[in-house]
Amino acid sequence: MEKRFPCSLFVSLLLAFFFLFSTNSSDALEVGFYSKSCPDVEKIVRKTVLSYYKDDPTITAPLLRLHFHDCFVEGCDGSVLINSTTTNVAEKDAKPNLSLDGFDVIDKAKAELEAKCPGVVSCADIVALAARDAVSLATYVVRSGKWSKNYNMYEVETGRRDGRVSTVSDAINNLPSSFWGIYQLKRSFASKGLNLKDLAVLSAAHTIGNSHCNSFAKRLYNYTGKGDMDPSLLASYATTLKKECTPTDNTTVLEMVPGSSTTFDTTYFKLVKEKKGLFHSDQALLRSQVTKNYVFSHVTNSTGFFHDFGVSMVKMGRNKVLEGKNGEIRKNCAVIN
Ligand code: HEM
User: Fold this and answer.
1) CB 128 within 8 A of CB 67
2) pLDDT score of 59 more than 60
3) Fewer CB near the last or first residue (10 Å), C or N of the chain?
4) Is 44 in contact with 181 (CB distance < 8 Å)?
5) What is the pLDDT of residue 3?
6) What are phi and psi of 332, to 5 degrees?
7) Is residue 280 annotated as part of the catalytic site, yes or no?
8) Quick check: do 30-176 and 201-314 share a fold?
9) How far is the CA of 329 from the centre of ligand 1 (A)?
10) From ligand 1's centre to the CA of 1, what distance in Å?
């Protein structure tokens, strides 16, 4: 008895240690991972994003969403970029991913990087950098009218490797639905190492970009199957939306924040507060005290929001990354080596 006790105490301490310190996150990522192996990586990605942005500022939203959809499925490993083959239906072809865009920006940056430092920079890192650059452009450059690298909203950790697995079922099982409530969202985000504050902060990515009618039309016409409307949506706003979207419309696209869908700001919080969030999942933020407080206190606090957004994006970017000798550095982001 006397001998077994210290042993079980040791085991308990060991278990407690693992419980406390085991997360989805990684220690191998670092800011400037490529500083010796490919020192111009950030410059090249920024230049590429900027060249697309100058032609079309709506590029920010798809690039940001790409990083989210990458990180939530198989971790941030570029698996969202992989094309389906004759033997495998990849994440890209899962229904929620059919409206993804911005792949050409990643491919362009990758081609330049492969020319400069072949086999060094992962596609997963390019996605993470491009998301940051795109958001920074939509935040600071829109306001100041000029570009400077000091406008980076946050530092991006790099060192991710590319995954070799991409399946449609993984995407369907891991991407949150726009019809989910707060408990499902909380559980989903927790499984990626993200808490309720991160949920509120990252959901505000919906301050930019567009949505197809079919991502929310059920809320307007047939919420519970009885021809009713989602009560979490402001009735007068539902009437406005009905003029744009018929019940079966799957082609029309609406700005999620009408009139400012290319500016990254706090308007999203104002809309959610007024029950004008486009998705049930947006309005669900009012169903937990933590997320509701965040929404209400950030309607006009853009400085606080930008800071928090950077923190939560870095956290999201650490989800289950491949490092060391795991995975690979893909030559072509759409094809496993
Ligand atoms: C909280 C759970 C989330 C759900 C349920 C969700 C769902 C959706 C849906 C349904 C769309 C519209 C797709 C379409 O119909 O075209 C959308 C768009 C978008 N989402 Fe989310 N999203 C969530 C979180 C996030 C996060 C965490 C980010 C980024 C950090 C993000 C970034 C975006 C962006 C930027 C768009 C606009 C894309 C574009 O205009 O091309 N979303 N989201």
Assistant:
1) yes
2) yes
3) N
4) no
5) 41
6) -120, 120
7) no
8) no
9) 27
10) 57
| pLDDT tens-digit series, residues 196-227 | 999 999 999 999 999 999 999 999 999 999 99
Q: From ligand 1's centre to the CA of 250, what distance in Å?
A: 16
Best residue for ligand 1 mutational test, from 211, 245, 294, 315 (most atoms within 8 Å of Cβ): 211
Per-residue confidence (pLDDT) for residue 151, from 0 to 100: 80
Cα of 170 vs its chain's centroid, Å? 16
| Average pLDDT of every residue of the chain | 92
Residue of the nearest CA to atom 1 in ligand 1? 203
Residue 120 host element (H or E): none
Tell me the CA distances in angstroms from 298 to 218, 256, 306, one per residue in order. Answer: 29, 18, 10
Annotated binding site for Ca(2+): 70, 73, 75, 77, 79, 91, 207, 265
CA distance 304 to 298: 7
Contacts of 335 (CB under 8 A, 6+ apart): 82, 83
Helix, strand, coil share (%) of the chain residues, nearest 5: 55, 5, 40
Q: What are phi and psi of 322, to 5 degrees?
A: -90, 135
Domain spans, the chain: 30-176, 201-314
Fold of 201-314: Peroxidase; domain 2 (1.10.420)
Q: Cβ neighbours of residue 192 under 8 Å, at least 6 residues apart? A: 24, 71, 72, 316, 319, 320
Q: Is the distance from CB of 315 to CB of 198 less than 8 angstroms?
A: yes
Q: Which atom of ligand 1 lies at the shortest distance from residue 312's CA? A: 30
| Nearest atom, ligand 1, residue 61 CA | 35
Task: Decide if 124 contacts 292 (C-beta within 8 A).
Answer: no
Residue 7 pLDDT greater than 90, yes or no: no
Nearest CA to ligand 1 atom 3: 176
Nearest Cα neighbor of 126 from 86, 170, 70 is: 70
Q: Could you tell me which CATH number the domain at 30-176 has?
A: 1.10.520.10
